[in-house]
Structures
1.
Amino acid sequence: MPLKNKEKEAAEPKNAPEAPLRALYKKTFSFEPTSFEPLKADGSARRLFRLGDRTRSVIGVFGPDKLENRAFLEFSRHFRAEKLPVPEIYAADENQGIYLEEDLGGTTLFEYLLSERKGSEIPPQVTAVYKKVLEYLPRFQAQAGRGLDLKFCYPRASFDRQSIMWDLNYFKYYFLKLAKIPFNEQKLEDDFVRFTDFLLEAPSEGFLYRDFQSRNIMLRGGEPWFIDYQGGRKGAPQYDLASLLYDAKADLPPELRSELRAHYLSASGLDKRTFMRHYHAFVYVRIMQAMGAYGLRGFYEGKTHFLNSVPYAVKNIEWLLRNSELEVKVPELMACFKRIAASSYLRQFGKTTLGLTVRITSFSFKNGLPLDDKGHGGGFVFDCRALPNPGRYEQYMQLTGRDKPVIDFLQKEPEVAKFLENVFSITDMSVENYLSRNFTSLMVNFGCTGGRHRSVYCAEALAARVKQKYGARVELAHREIGGVAK
């Protein structure tokens, strides 16, 4: 039974966009839309709809923030004039906060990645699309950015001190506090100032897209199209590259991130040394901005699906702690990152499986223990010096624990078999526990006198067992004889 007029009016919010969007469609195309379908909401307050008739389909947008709408509309017109693949704007009624734009289909780069990837492996066709995307990025940043009227940027004209501090405090109040990560507030604020000073040293004359990530890139006919740049402003190019390569749920492997970074640098013509000096700092600030958003939407607003990205962000932080070194000293901020990386709680959201890497190293005690100063400190050191030593025999001196004669020698010794049986029993407990808690790194070290025979043999044996029994990723290094296997 249809609602009476007053009842119908009460059932619809005053800003219900369907009627004005339908009216704008008819005014623009001279036909009533025969379909009107709401689309899945993103993290913003905008509402999107697909509407059309027998001859066309368009996207209708209602945005309550008129300044944000204006930024998107002006940027879109500018980018179209620069021949960049962004949606055409068909019509807009800025007073009502509505506009009609080109329908780019329903496949994002993120959805394409998920449909094509096989576990952690990214197939060549997906890598090729990412490279196409990165060939467009310098055009947005440099070519299109040169003629852009910055008065339309919202909420700031540049990624300046104020913008950066907003992001850092967003991370502090909506993530650190709500996730119950302890910190010294004054020391963290001091670090924020130093960190911001360092970021502001980077050249920043181009356009910063701001949210250059896989859900904001559409694929149509295999070609990338770009959306959601309304938060753009003047800024450093490192930020946009970090946004794409450290996009949490995309979970790109480190090797692919390096390959794509090199491709971007080649396409942009930027000096690698200058770019890399600030790059990882921008990776951190982008991750902090994203984690602030996860905390706001997930912890504070109760939209728990946003928290499903947290374990991937933790994994990225853990990788950065181990593989990057900032040129600015921010000890309290780094302590916060280490507490995040060590948190079992933050790894448990959703049905995320991050994958465990077991890092196995052979070494000589004469040259000191392997260090894990950038990791979380978990793991073992096993002393192989009590085992029979093939290095005492002339025929084995120039060989290593990877050579068949040495392997045959050690396999015949019952002490070696007993030692490895105990090693396997202990490490199995940790591997299984780490897998259940979604930890991503376990370090196991084998030492002997020279680091060439017994330690190498035991490291190889454990690596083979972990791969075969658990399917975990293994990084195997023999410090004294060289050589890394994965």
2.
Amino acid sequence: MSQTVTKPRVRTRPKVERPRLHKVILVNDDFTPREFVVTVLKAEFRMSEEQAYKVMITAHRRGACVVAVYTREVAEEKATRATEAGRAKGYPLLFTTEPEE
């Protein structure tokens, strides 16, 4: 009688790297009204009134403040839409993105 030898099946899982996250940063300026900044933060980043106020004040005092952290595409889209909301009203409101360390 002949015996068949079966090799055990080995499953290989591809190593999936998590997408690199990016910070959305609010840059302070001396012209955009505080109330408008709070409105944009609430609308675009779904913050409460209190959260939005704290972020706005931090940016005002320190010159900039991290608003949120997302994947690169989402961060860039939100920063662009928030900046464009300010431009549409004639304000120099600026949101930028940078990779999280």
3.
Amino acid sequence: MKRILICWIGNTDLQASEGVDVGAGPIAQALDTREFDEIFLISDYEDTRVKPYLNWIKKRTSTPHKLFYRQLSSPTHFGEIYEIAASVCQEALDQYGDQTELTFHLSPGTPAMAAIWIILAKTRFPAELIESSRAYGVQTASVPFDISAEFLPTLLQKPDAQLRSLSEEKPTESANFENIIYRSPAIARVVEKAKRAAVRDIPVLFEGESGTGKELFARAIHQNSPRKEGPFIAVNCGAIHPNLVESELFGHKKGAFSNAHEDRKGHFEEADGGTIFLDEIGELPKDMQVRLLRVLQEKEVVRLGESKPRKVDVRIVAATNRTLIEEVSEGRFREDLFYRLVVAYLKLPPLRERTGDMGLLINHSLELINQENEAQPGYKYKKISIGARNLILNYHWPGNIRELQNTLRRAMVWTDGETLTKQDIEEALLPAFGKRDEDILNRPLDTDFSLPDLIDEVAKHYLNRALKESKTKKEAAELVGLPSYQTLTNWAKKHGVAIDNKRK
């Protein structure tokens, strides 16, 4: 077991090394009275004060130390302090594994820093909390409350009035919307809009990356609509062979083609009186887009091989992982059909933008998968370790919720133990990791290889993503770890990435 002390360097610690009459300072006090295998020190002070302090503390103790210099815009900025402290804790766990015993020192630094240590210790990184003073020495701090650290940065940055408003306006839970697991404002707004659209008999279009829950939302809309007693028919437009799309959607008459041995209803007739969910609608061939437009306009279908129209009363909910307006501009999707579908438009954010939801989704998915497998002979109810949870929290999840749940399923099937470890999750993620490494790190060093070209390719990719996933240049710079929006602008110019001049 490795015992690691993690703390900020405070002004009193620096004064102690400078000869000011303040005693030994909180950090030196802790090292004088307690044993640790290593100390991780975090500082945003200038080097001219920190380097002499490190030399001073090295003479007082044999405990090895590691310094993490992290610049803060303010020593009371909760969001920045949280991100920095959490990253240092994660580095300790990455270095020493699950057999790490963390201790956080509350006394050095600002009250905001102490508050973050308390919250991290009670949630993401269980740890002992200590405090010290000249009068009472070093003591274990007893803190009785627990709160979600994952959601803290967003929570603390909101003014009280906005928080009250968000709490009061959160939609009331109802059938099927309760199956949407969320806490983030981003999803809360989508749920509220979806509930308002549900009670109105209008087309709805969902856009979002694969795995973001578009069908779950579509079913919730149906269950909360006046059509809830009618059928809900889900159709994956991308999975139908182009030659069969017309027959599948609109039906056919016996003998209409070689294998048409009997009359058959299409999906629209099956959905009569209810809702049809057209997933991946952007995959529909152009001629079928014309037919679909007629259904929306005339509320009738014509079976393949017939000429007589049949009336249908169907509500359309459509979904796509493409940006449909771009498909229209490039001529792959009909403009008139687009505007028919987009009466109610809802965009589902990817998992990486759902601040505060990941912990809830981990817990919900674990419970769901445990229930799925509990009837299997010899199955053991699975929990998750701190290291495994933190790996999940820090992973990008390009496949969103679907990828998260399938990764947990693989890990829970493969492990014989009752606790999922970090290694179990890493092994479950190997296919995704392997492809990235092969693409970037294992390219052949032949005559066509160019390191500058590869760096340029990577820079363009992440700069474009950061600009797409942020509202301001400052936010984009933070996403890719650049110090300022001016630096982001310089990088964009260097690598030929366009930035909208209207963007702040």
4.
Amino acid sequence: MPATTTPRITVLPKIQPKVERPKLYKVILVNDDFTPREFVTRVLQGEFRMTEDQAHKVMITAHKLGACVVAVFTRDVAETKADRATDAGRAKGYPLLFTTEPEE
């Protein structure tokens, strides 16, 4: 009788994918001298879910320093919120501006 050979099975090690946290982006409120403070406060409350006190503090900080970080999100969320807040100002005819930049 001929000898039978059994096939060899090679077991490969499991590859663990490297999972990185998504990069974060800052949403920045840029001060201007034309948009009413009350309007900026309402936009901060509506879009960024701030209390009236928090929104007022952010608005005053941007007024004094020229710009202020409002919040930090993943890129898509940050850009969407910045665009929506800026569009709210444009809809009323104000030069309200929110920008985004990577957090370092």
